[in-house]
Amino acid sequence: QVQLVESGGGLVQAGDSLRLSCAASGGTFSRHAMGWFRQVPGKEREFVAALSRSGGTTYYGDPVKGRFTISRDNAKNTVYLQMNSQKPEDTAVYYCAASSIGSRGDITTTRFYRYWGQGTQVTVSS
Question: 118 Cβ partners below 8 Å, 6+ apart?
Answer without folding.
Answer: 5, 6
